[in-house]
Hints:
The complex is a heterodimer of chains A (256) and B (365).
Chain A: E1 2-6, E2 9-11, E3 34-36, H1 38-54, E4 57-64, H2 68-78, E5 82-87, H3 96-107, E6 114-118, H4 129-137, E7 140-151, E8 154-160, E9 166-172, E10 175-179, H5 191-198, E11 203-205, H6 239-252
Parallel strand pairs in A: 1-4, 1-6, 4-5, 5-11, 6-10, 7-10
Antiparallel strand pairs in A: 2-3, 7-8, 8-9
Chain B: H1 8-25, H2 29-35, H3 40-49, H4 67-80, H5 82-102, H6 105-116, E1 121-123, H7 126-132, E2 135-139, E3 145-154, E4 162-169, E5 172-179, E6 185-189, E7 201-210, E8 215-216, H8 218-253, E9 255-256, E10 259-260, H9 265-293, H10 299-324, H11 335-348, H12 352-363
Helix pairs in contact in B: 1-4, 4-5, 4-8, 5-6, 5-8, 8-9, 8-10, 8-11, 9-10, 10-11, 10-12
Amino acid sequence: MxxxxxxxxxxxxxxxxxxxxxxxxxxxxxRLTFDMNEADxxxxxxxxxxxxxFGGTITAISLGTADAEDTLRIALAKGAxxxxxxxxxxxxxxxxxxxxxxxxxxxxxxxxDAIFTGCMATDDSYxxxxxxxxxxxxxxxxxxxxxxxxxxxxxxxxRELEGGLIEHLEMSLPAVFAVQTGINEPRYASLIAIxxxxxxxxxxxxxxxxxxxxxxxxxxxxxxxxxVGKRAEILSGSTDEISTKAATIxxxxxxx
Amino acid sequence: MSIVKMNSEQKLIRNxxxxxxxxxxxxxxxxxxxxxRVPEAILAKxxxxxxxxxxxxxxxxxxxxxxxxxxxxxxELGRSCSSLALVxxxxxxxxxxxxxxxxSASMQEDYLRRLGKGMIGGYVPFSEIETQGKGxxxxxxxxxxxxSGTCDVVxxxxxxxxxxxPVKERDGRSLYxxxxxxxxxxxxxxxxxxxxxxxxxxxxCQGTPVIQDNRLNPEAVEYSLEFARIGYSAVALxxxxxxxxxALKYSKERKQFGRAICEFPMVREMLAEIKLCEESxxxxxxxxxxxxxxxxxxxxxxxxxxxxxxxxxxxxxxxAIQIHGGYGYTQDYPVERYFRDAKSxxxxxxxxxxxxxRIAQEILL
Lengths: 256, 365
């Protein structure tokens, strides 16, 4: 199987202090660390497992600045065969739609059986790239994918729904799978594989190769931190008194 | 631009080892400490990543990386779990490197291949033997050679498939590599102040057979001791970073007299002093590693790095405990562990006064 994995390099903001920059439209990135988007690492692992079973190739593609090549090299070290970086610095104000459109321009010239993306990127949380890319390529897609198995040219796909429900789909290939986190155990790149990947060539494409006009229906107006709410109230008294006060507050707020 | 320069390969290695340490070690650090062992699954992943054979050439199945890469990995592991970092340091610096540089062809073929696959070797720190007045003697009478003796600490001994046993000879100490389970060999539990999950055990040998092919001469042993100082210092640098991270976090959260304690001048001074330890250690560690990689004489740089970094780790952990106040002394926070680990690390290689004596001896020449 020939597979494509779309990978984004994102800031690690889970435990970091996030500050908004002077433009009001981006975060201060100086002191943040960057890594492969979490869901994308599961998408990559899903592709590697299929390659190990059926053979074929994996092409990793990232729309990012030169630093994204580090992330692509980790993908190469884990099992990707080829890597392509689309120069994000040559395209302004990228959103989910524009990202998918640029990916499509590169992917349309590649033969593939399936494309794996993460279900979302942890920095902008658009959840758009997988489905929009599938539409632009004219192939089927599944989002929130929790399992992919391939047999007889068809994919058996599970999707994770709210309330613990699992939806099972049979899909024809090629297709795009936007993968949920936790569906497998992403491997770590071995040091020797990193060493080998460090010297591999990464194809870089930019404005010269992609000449489409990008239009989007939305514009980022600004980022802000939600206002700080009232301070927590510490209830005092005996256990009975505290539980009565707590129940009263919950009822007053209309929570039950 | 900093004089400590990493190439893109070393940066990738740092990120991947950091990711491994954050995801696999950080969440269970207190369990590892309490149970005194690193889980099998984590050891297996460490082996799969190629950390135990980091410095071993590819032709033996190792990762074929250099000294700076080793320090990068040890620093990141040391920050999360200094016990595991010590096992990796011992394997690469005290076991693999002397075999690689001085071992016989058969020893290299046998041991480097096994180490390249992730096998762990045990090592008896000499300081332990010298301070305890214990040690091993070689008996060449009768059929073959045998070693007999005891020691209280074999680093990585519990996890190891073989142990490098030091034997005192006329011109220094040689090492005999002996597979565990040989006749007359008994290992027993030992308790250490820190680095409790590093698999340290006590060892007794009574007429345990050894062979000449598995002997490393005193020159190899002396060389590996100097190289190990670089490894220890990288682990200690990781510990300094861990102490600083904890102290920064706590000092920003803890309020006293209506202010975060990081606003008080004495706390700020201690934070700055830990940062000073971190930066001076980083320069010393990577200077020594770069000299090793450049095939220069790295001995003096390694001694300086070891003293700067290991002493710095002890001092930094003490300051971090002080910043935490009474909580720093409890096991609710990891800083007391950082102190115990740092103190163990400071004494395991060679006691600081002996390292200073070596430095003095050389500059007085």
